[in-house]
Amino acid sequence: MNKRKLGNTGEEVSILGFGAMRFPLKADGTIDEKPAIEMIHYAIDQGVNYIDTAWPYHDGESEPFLGRALGGGYREKVYLATKLPSWKIKRPEDFEYFLDQQLLRLNTEVIDFYLVHAINKKTWHHNLLKNGLFSFLDRALASKKVKYVGFSFHDELSLFKEIVDAYPWSFTQIQFNYLDHDYQAGLKGLYYARDRGLGIIVMEPLRGGGLAGKQPADIAALWEGAASQRTPVQWALEYVWNYPQVDLVLSGMSSLEQVKENIEIASRATPNALTREEIQTVYAVKAAYLSRLINQCTTCGYCMPCPYEVNIPGAFKIFNDGHLFEQLDTFKEKYLREVPRDNRASQCVACGQCEPQCPQNISIIDDLKKVALAFESQ
Predict the structure, then answer these.
(1) Residue scoring higher pLDDT (183 or 135)
(2) pLDDT digits over 207-260, tens only?
(3) What domains can you pick out in the chain, each with its CATH number?
């Protein structure tokens, strides 16, 4: 297993990390522990030494499961990472409460890499800074309950830079793949954090599995026409690992076959390994995917808040992804599941307040009608 040093920590981590959020499930929706433990142990035995979980994964069962799965000497073989649920911090004492609960759930005395989870504008200002985040992080490090602190991120680049500069973090975790150069922190954020010495952990290298599934015909033809042949999963992972600034890539693996496949790819991946021609192939695939987008919404949020509470960026993100991967039925289910009725596109009354604020000059009102027609009609 190839390893890289995680930023300025000096710790050598496997370039593939195990994301503990998509384990196989039993019929009742709980973790199927026997195959999940087999997956974890196999990965560790093959050199994966970074396991990532969080408070809400698997409806709160991921941390306790790992506390059991890492028995028998496996805990000592890995760096264990979990995340403070930022949205649950309502009082200063909540910080210590969640950390202590996570230590118990994970059956460990120390968390190697502790992240502030899913920071966005709301949680940053109203949950974290308001209640004394930095004092808590100082205490957690001094107590030796955590070894390194970092944060995962889901918002705009400007906020990302503000957070990077606000505290002496050891590392950060961002979404990055060949489609998402300009999404959230993106490539600019990756470089910004690296220039300041932070370790870089990448999540969603396969964009939630979208880049690994069945490829649209024109995309498949581009891959097949490449001078060197790889599977779509190989292309996506090796593209991210091609960046020397990326220390570790997380994969939320759901089967032993996926574990074996990802380990095999990681065993060969090195920085700056892709040729110019190979990178051009990836860019051609990216262009073909992006040509499917209904609009150029970047989820920047300038259109918000909507006076009628329509989740404009959320609606466009799911709608665009449905067209991106030619899976409108699947993403319709996601839309109906994740967007509350009062926040759906059909609630738009065409007041027009949003459109002058959009830096992409999107016809928001017309496009919301398209979302409602595709996702909300019977």
Answers:
(1) 135
(2) 878 888 788 889 999 999 998 999 999 999 999 999 999 999 999 999 999 999
(3) 3-283 (3.20.20.100), 312-375 (no CATH)
Question: Left if phi > 0, otherwise alpha if psi is -120 to 50, otherwise beta: which for 194?
Answer: alpha
| Beta-bridge mates of residue 150 | 115, 171
Mean pLDDT for 26-47 is: 96
Which tokens is 294 given? 């209904």
In single-letter form, the type of residue at position 308 comes to Y
**Entry pTM:** 0.88
Q: Tens of pLDDT along 80-138?
A: 999 999 999 999 999 999 999 999 999 999 999 999 998 988 899 999 999 999 999 99
Reading the block at residue 370, the tokens are 């398209």
Confidence of residue 146 (pLDDT cuts 50, 70, 90): very high
Exposure letters 82-107 (e unless 16+ CB within 10 A, then b): bbbbbbebeeeebbeebbeebbebbe
Non-local CB neighbours of 129 within 8 Å, separated by 6+ positions: none
- Per-residue pLDDT averaged across 3-21, rounded? 96
